[in-house]
């Protein structure tokens, strides 16, 4: 994720229910509240201070007024009789103007107005109790009026005296709008400050929370969800020493533990599945060998009963053939002979199948025997275009068997491959010695095996694998794996499942007997071996003959 994207993500508040959104909102709310409280105190203090200042101003104005008044009294005394009151009014108006007073009234001891910034009120009595008190107690009093209006002012009442003798009093007012404007300005600035504070907290707080809390928590919750779904390969990178770091590490440890256990479980399950499969096969094999034995006995009987009369018919036909040579009927006799020889061939194969002629076994190098068989096969029906390659082996794959029987087995398999490839293609023969491991045989080797999700591991046939029955070599026993691989059309699973059945064939009548692989099966089983066939449509077929190997020096235990 790019820095920009992260920032964008961290800025978005997401649903209000999100942990981060709630914390940030709370923080913003608290800060705003704090700033507002703080602002209230500041405004109060400022107001108090400004009012003090106004009072000081009022006091100086009173002092100035007293000084002027003294001066005016002096002038009046010196020019008694000639001067009348108007000059005082003029003095008052001048004074109000110079000191920027809203109003100024001067009264005598009886509170008669003797000077006024608005002359119309001259001669009236200004009967305000504060003024009387100020004159009596000889001190400056003040009060605020019109605080709610747009023309607030502070009223001052003070005494006027000359040489210790009270002459009267004065009432003047100072406008307060400047003070209120200052307070309002301060209030505005404080509000702005609160707003900016909240904004900064929301932005940086949310960024920090995302980094320190939300991101690791999100990573952990994603990891937990994956674990719930059965995927334990989680990596949590939070390394801090704080609670989140500890939690993260604990979760990581849990994941690895679960992963280990899961692996163990999987291995055990796999083992179980394999054992189960082997059991199933053993069961099938028992059934199959039973059937084979029955077919074998029957075949022996049929071959014996049909074989003898067939020999006789063959003999009579030969005599007839000689007698009728040159006539029209000799062609019919020739055809009869062909048909009879075909029946004879089936009979021979049946006999092969039913009784394994007990010829002497020998220590045979299978690859050398295969070379001889292939040499023999060359030039046979439609085999000329099939390329057969024999791969050399690291150690001679020596097996104790009858080489004639082995060659018959190999020939059956090679002819099947040639038939499948329509006489055109490549066949590869290879052999190797390996310790026997039955579960190894269950693993698909040809390319294009379906994945385990599509076909379960235990469904061997669907995965293109079949084994012959028979007990086979013991686990770990030395064996020779002799494989014949063709790149022909391969077999569908339904066909593959039946190839060892006697008389099973997909070839037209007269072409296949369906006995080839059944015979191979019997020959290999008789030696304690196994045939494994793996075939995939469009890929090819691999037939593997697994024989107990002749032990070499290195393998003695
Ligand atoms: N290499 C192969 N490629 C494709 N199909 C094969 C191969 N080998 C055997 N088969 C199939 O197995 C069947 C049985 O073979 P087999 O027992 O030898 O009898 P037959 O060859 O007389 O039909 C064949 O008919 C064929 O369908
Ligand atoms: Mg065949």
Q: What layout of secondary structure does this protein have?
A:
Blueprint: H1 3-11, H2 19-78, H3 86-98, E1 103-108, E2 113-116, H4 129-137, E3 141-145, E4 153-162, E5 165-175, H5 177-228, H6 243-323, H7 329-354, E6 362-365, H8 366-377, E7 386-390, E8 398-401, H9 403-420, E9 425-435, H10 438-441, E10 465-467, E11 478-486, H11 493-496, H12 516-526, E12 530-536, E13 540-548
Parallel strand pairs: 7-9
Antiparallel strand pairs: 1-2, 1-5, 3-4, 4-5, 6-8, 9-11, 10-12, 11-13, 12-13
Bound molecules: adenosine-5'-diphosphate and magnesium ion (MG).
Adenosine-5'-diphosphate binds at residues 412, 416-417, 420, 486, 488, 491, 495, 499, 504-507, 512-514, 516-518, 541.
The chain-level mean pLDDT equals: 83
C-alpha-based Rg, rounded: 60 Å
The name of the CATH topology of the largest domain is: Heat Shock Protein 90
Name the structural class: alpha+beta
Number of helices: 12
Alpha carbon gap, first and last residue: 61 Å
Helix content: 40-55%
Assembly state of the chains shown? single chain
SSE string: HHHEEHEEEHHHEHEEHEHEEHHEE
The CATH architecture of the largest domain can be named as: 2-Layer Sandwich
Share of residues in strands:
15-25%
Main sheet makeup: 6 strands, mixed
């Amino acid at each position: 994720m790019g820095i920009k994207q992260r920032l964008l993500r961290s800025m978005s508040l997401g649903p209000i229910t999100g942990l981060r959104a709630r914390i940030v909102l709370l923080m913003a709310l608290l800060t705003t509240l704090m700033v507002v409280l703080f602002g209230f105190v500041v405004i109060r203090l400022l107001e108090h201070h400004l009012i003090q200042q106004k009072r000081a101003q009022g006091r100086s104005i009173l002092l100035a007024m007293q000084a002027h008044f003294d001066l005016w009294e002096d002038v009046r005394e010196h020019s008694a009789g000639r001067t009348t009151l108007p000059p005082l009014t003029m003095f008052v108006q001048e004074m109000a103007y110079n000191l920027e007073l809203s109003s100024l009234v001067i009264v005598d001891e009886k509170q008669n107005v003797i000077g006024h910034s608005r002359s119309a009120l001259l001669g009236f009595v200004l009967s305000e109790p504060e003024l009387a008190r100020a004159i009596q107690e000889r001190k400056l009093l003040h009060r605020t009026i019109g605080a709610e209006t747009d023309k607030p002012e502070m009223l001052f009442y003070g005494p006027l005296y000359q040489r210790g003798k009270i002459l009267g009093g004065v009432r003047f007012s100072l406008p307060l709008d400047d003070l209120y404007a200052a307070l309002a300005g301060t209030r505005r600035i404080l509000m702005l400050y609160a707003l900016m504070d909240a904004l900064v907290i929301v932005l940086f707080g949310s960024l920090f929370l995302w980094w320190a809390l939300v991101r690791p928590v999100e990573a952990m919750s994603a990891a937990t969800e994956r674990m719930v779904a059965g995927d334990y390969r989680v990596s949590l990178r939070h390394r801090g020493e704080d609670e989140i770091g500890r939690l993260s590490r604990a979760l990581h440890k849990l994941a690895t533990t679960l992963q280990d256990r899961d692996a163990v479980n999987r291995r055990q399950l796999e083992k179980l599945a394999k054992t189960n499969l082997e059991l199933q096969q053993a069961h099938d094999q028992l059934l199959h060998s039973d059937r084979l034995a029955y077919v074998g006995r029957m075949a022996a009987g049929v071959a014996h009963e049909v074989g003898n009369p067939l020999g006789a018919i063959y003999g009579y036909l030969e005599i007839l053939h000689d007698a009728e040579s040159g006539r029209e009927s000799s062609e019919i006799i020739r055809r009869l002979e062909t048909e009879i020889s075909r029946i004879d061939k089936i009979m021979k194969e049946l006999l092969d199948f039913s009784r394994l002629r007990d010829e002497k076994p020998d220590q045979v190098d299978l690859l050398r025997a295969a070379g001889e068989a292939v040499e023999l096969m060359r030039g046979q029906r439609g085999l000329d275009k099939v390329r057969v390659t024999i791969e050399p082996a690291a150690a001679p794959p020596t097996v104790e068997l009858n080489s004639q029987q082995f060659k018959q087995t190999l020939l059956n398999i090679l002819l099947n491959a040639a038939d499948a490839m329509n006489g055109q293609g490549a066949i590869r023969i290879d052999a190797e010695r390996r310790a026997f491991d039955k579960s190894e045989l269950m693993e698909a080797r040809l390319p294009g095996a379906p994945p385990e999700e599509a076909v379960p591991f235990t469904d061997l046939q669907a995965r293109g694998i079949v084994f012959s029955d028979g007990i086979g070599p013991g686990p770990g026993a030395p064996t020779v794996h002799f494989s014949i691989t063709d790149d022909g059309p391969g077999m569908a699973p339904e066909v593959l499942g039946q190839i060892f059945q006697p008389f099973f064939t997909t070839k037209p009548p007269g072409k296949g007997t369906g006995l080839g692989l059944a015979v191979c099966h019997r020959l290999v089983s008789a030696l304690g071996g196994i045939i494994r066939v793996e075939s995939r449509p469009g890929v090819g077929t691999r037939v593997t003959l697994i024989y107990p190997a002749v032990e070499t020096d290195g393998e003695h235990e």
